[in-house]
Amino acid sequence: MQLKKEAVANALQGGMKKILVLLLLMLLGVACKQEPQAVIIPKNLIKTFSPEMAENAVMYQVHIRNYSPEGTFNAFTQDIPKLKKLGVKIIYLMPVQEIGLENRKAGRKLLAAQLKDSVLQKKIMGNPYALKDYRSIQASYGLADDLKKLIATAHHHQMYVIMDWVANHTAWDHAWVKKHPDFYVKGNEGLMQSPYDWRDVVQLNYTKPAVHYAMIEEMRYWLKNYQLDGFRCQVAGEVPTQFWERAQAELQKVRPIFMLAEAEKPSLLKKAFDAQYAWEGHYILNNIAQGKMSVKELDTYLQNLQATHLPESIFLNFISTSEENSWNGSEYERMGDAVEVMTALTYMINGMPLIYNGQEYDMDKRLRPYQKDTVPHTLGNMWGVYEKLGQLKTTHPALHSGQNASTYTRIKTSDDNHIIAFERVKKGKKLLFVANLSKEEKIVALNKKGAYRDYMTGEVIQINDNQSLNLKSWAYKILVNQ
């Protein structure tokens, strides 16, 4: 009988222990739910933006949904220290806002208005420039705090962050379509219109002053709440210059910002923008790589820039962008073996070089414009090239652009149809660039004697009178004075 009582007591005691353990686990679970991990914001180490900050800047364009398999802010934030190694000073985020569903694009012909399946709707993410709400965040990218952490992390590493701004149009399901139909352009029958054949968006009407002020308020929201450093403005040339000048004046009251126009329109650089795209130069580089143009066209272009634009004008030089990659092909499709020398040129000529996400990983595919895709992250040849070019751009005064740009002097060679050679100088620091922009090996005579160091290889080169250089197809040399 005594044994039975002890057995019962032990059983009860064991049961009580189990209950206590379960209660403790439940309490811990509740505590974890009640106290989520706080977002750690790195210390801000960056100075307020100024024109001088752009003089030696490298820009990096990132599409969050394609940058990583996850397609999130946090996945990109982890890699920001890597971009520092490439000399990146300005990170340009493609639109992060919610994309409209009405008439959503899935391809060149198929519209997501036909897609009723929720699974397909998630797969077909649509055109990032068809915005449903200017103040929203695309849910799949993460939370507002995640974006704030991204920006703070960039600032911690002394990089500025600008965001794409779509002022020309909205998605069809943007709230303004119903609340403010007078904000939009209407055709002869009083119906709202899409610009060009962009059927997933509707055109805003900038003859209405109310549109100006409403749009500026949307932009101001991001500067105040996310500490952005400026905007890259899509199809800026399609929006009246008057609006951009008004926006620049109002937004600068919040704090100094950098404004980049996706356009090539001289009037935009007078009061509205700090920089604009070098589209003409980009197409010339493509055509030279394809054998359709020679160095003469490049020379004429560079001479015209000096003659027709303000000295402080900054042009964004590039061999790829999101649009070029998706619609016209990767740089390897368009330029083949000329990719590296054309990349080097975008750093050597006056202006600001752009890296489109994936170029640093030798990306040779087109990213799908309306669906989730992923940038490869396998190191190849170009990472080292971008690293060295970035280091030179950010440290050598001869590559400065903008208000205090270095000089540019074309040097004659024995074959100016295929060889480009020029010298850039600032504060006594000189840099000589020589490149063979053809698919044939060339022997080049230069009228520029002196002792130089080949920046890319470290080799010391002595150029004497009547001495020639052998340059293989698409080869180049960046020579810094000893």
Plain-language structure description:
By secondary structure, the chain is of the alpha/beta class. It is built from 16 helices and 18 strands. The protein has helices at 2-34, 64-67, 73-77, 80-85, 118-123, 144-156, 175-179, 209-226, 241-251, 268-271, 279-289, 295-308, 322-328, 331-335, 339-348, 381-395, and strands at 58-62, 88-93, 160-165, 169-171, 201-203, 230-233, 258-261, 275-277, 314-317, 352-356, 407-410, 419-426, 429-436, 442-445, 450-454, 460-463, 468-471, 476-481. The strands form four sheets. The chain has an eight-stranded parallel β-barrel with strand order 1-2-3-6-7-8-9-10. The chain has a six-stranded antiparallel beta sheet with strand order 11-12-13-18-15-16. Helix 8 (209-226) runs parallel beside helix 9 (241-251), helix 11 (279-289) packs antiparallel against helix 12 (295-308) and helix 15 runs parallel beside helix 16. It is globular.
